[in-house]
Design goal:
The termini are far apart. The longest helix has 20 residues, at 432-451. The protein folds into 3 domains: 3-155 and 335-348, 3-Layer(aba) Sandwich (Rossmann fold); 158-184 and 223-331, no CATH class; 360-431, Type Iii Antifreeze Protein Isoform Hplc 12. 48% of the residues are buried. The protein is α/β, with parallel strands linked by helices. 38% of the residues lie in helices and 16% in strands.
Length: 452
């Protein structure tokens, strides 16, 4: 039975999937905008540190007042409306809620939210992929131990890429590479919240009208978010991180199979089975026609003469050898698609992407020369950007994960372009997220030792 049919069934029975959202920013607001169109799903509660900000998001999407008029959880259940509170713990603990959607964008807080949700037997759809990138493997294990689902968020690119990879493998195709599109030039890694809108192609007025956060959007531009998202994909699919980090080759949709094939076949891949990102800009800054900036793709191989002949017979666009094909989706609709993950977790007990290994990591890397005493400001800020690395290397080098590179001071100078290590900072060992990362590192080390 399709997810929509299952939702209709729950609607008919008067037993909706009850959802609690933590964080009502841009992503959360996009999901809220679709909730009225989803049968069998009740957004019961929104937990936000600033209920006033949550209300502004609701006003922006055009909800009628009666939809969010509940003054308590009980009233929300009785009337089928939404209760807004600043108490996220109460949302997570309420027995009527089936699924928690974590979309604060704060990786340190997200770890606590996910763990608390697991303790209360809630499925979690984790929109805050930054947390997944540095400790998702252990989050997935904790969810399994609790008998609940931990899922990446459909609509966001990582879950959509995982879906394409699963499609390819379920069809029997070897996956050569998978990833997303992006707007990228080499100097973008230096971008800060002060420069983001000019690079992005928006005016400050447009950004303000859309309620867009410059630090968050800068994390896309400076390469941090592509590194985070491809890391999540690698850890959920078993694909590997490129040894030299993401290369961002420029190309159109039709260029994909020629780009993402082995070097020996004329492509740019030193090895197959990796994640990568394609840029919509040529080195001179001009935009490529038929680009896939906002989309996702997977490159597959026709590994027999018969399959390659089938490609030809059905007019499939291949690389120049006829061996490699790219399947893609040009757009992703972010929070507007999130209902798929919520329904899948609640009604099928299945994730739309979940970590199965720790193949890749995102390392904090200096945007400029940094001095002792400076305080790191994390993803999308003024001090560091994220670079994907094979996880084994990042652990061997004791690299600082980007998700924990915020609000901590430097104790040593770091040169521009240098990957930071734990020895460069005064780490806060009291953080739950820090302790959880250290626990995951020990688990990975023990697993590797046992394999040897």
């Amino acid at each position: 039975m399709s997810l929509h049919a299952k939702l209709l069934e729950r609607e008919a029975k008067g037993q909706p999937v009850r959802v609690g959202v933590i964080g009502a920013g841009k992503f959360g607001a996009m999901f809220l905008a679709q909730v009225p169109n989803l049968p069998g799903m009740h957004l019961m509660a929104i937990g936000d540190l600033s209920p006033a900000n949550a209300l502004r998001s609701i006003e922006r999407i055009g909800w009628k007042t009666e939809r969010h008029s509940a003054r308590s959880f009980d009233e929300a259940i009785r009337k089928g409306t939404t209760f807004i509170t600043d108490d996220w713990q109460a949302v997570v603990a309420h027995p009527a809620i089936d699924v928690i959607v974590e979309c604060t964008g704060n990786p340190v807080a997200a770890v606590e939210h996910c763990l608390e949700a697991f303790r209360h037997g809630k499925h979690v759809v984790n929109v805050t992929v930054e947390a997944d990138a540095f400790c998702g493997y252990l989050l997935g294990r904790r969810a399994a131990e609790a008998g609940v689902v931990y899922s990446l968020a459909f609509g966001d690119q990582p879950a959509l890429i995982c879906d394409l990879v699963d499609w390819a493998r379920s069809c029997g195709f070897p996956v050569v590479a998978a990833g997303r599109g992006h707007k990228w030039l080499p100097n973008y890694f230096e971008s800060t919240p002060d420069t983001v809108w000019n690079f992005w192609g928006l005016t400050e007025e447009q950004a303000q009208i859309g309620g867009l956060n410059p630090k968050m959007f800068n994390s896309f531009l400076d390469g941090s978010k592509p590194a985070i998202e491809t890391t999540a994909v690698a850890n959920a699919t078993g694909l590997e991180a490129p040894d030299k980090g993401l290369q961002f080759p420029p190309g159109s949709m039709d260029d994909l199979p020629n780009l993402f094939r082995p070097v020996g076949a004329g492509g740019m891949l030193e090895k197959t089975g990796v994640v990568e990102v394609v840029s919509c800009l040529r080195p001179d800054g001009s935009e490529i026609d038929h680009h896939i900036r906002n989309g996702i793709w997977v490159c597959i191989e026709g590994d027999s003469e018969y399959i390659r002949r089938c490609f030809q017979e059905y007019g499939v666009t291949t690389d120049t050898t006829g061996r490699y094909v790219a399947i893609y989706r040009r757009w992703h609709l972010i929070g507007l698609e999130l209902g798929v993950s919520v329904a899948s977790a609640a009604l099928r007990g299945e994730a739309t992407g979940t970590p199965v290994c720790f193949n890749a990591d995102v390392v904090a890397t200096a945007k400029r020369d940094l001095k002792p005493g400076e305080v790191l400001d994390g993803e999308g800020g003024y001090t560091v950007y994220g670079k994907i690395s094979p996880a084994k290397r990042s652990l061997e080098q004791s690299n600082l994960p980007l998700g924990l590179a915020s609000h901590i001071p430097l104790v040593r100078p770091v040169a521009k372009g240098q990957m930071l290590t734990w020895n460069d900072v005064a780490r806060d060992e009291t953080l739950t997220a820090y302790k959880f990362r250290m626990e995951m590192e020990r688990l990975v080390a023990e697993k590797a030792a046992a394999a040897d």
